[in-house]
Amino acid sequence: MKRSSFIIPIIAVIIGIAFLTFFEVYRIANTSVDITHGSGSSTHPDCVSTKSCYYPNPLIISRGDTVTWTNKDSLRHTVTSGIPTGDVAGTIFDSKVIEPEQTFKFTFTNTGTYDYFCIIHPWIQGQIIVK
Ligand SMILES: [Cu+2]
Question: Coiled-coil annotation: which residues (predicted)?
Answer without folding.
Answer: none
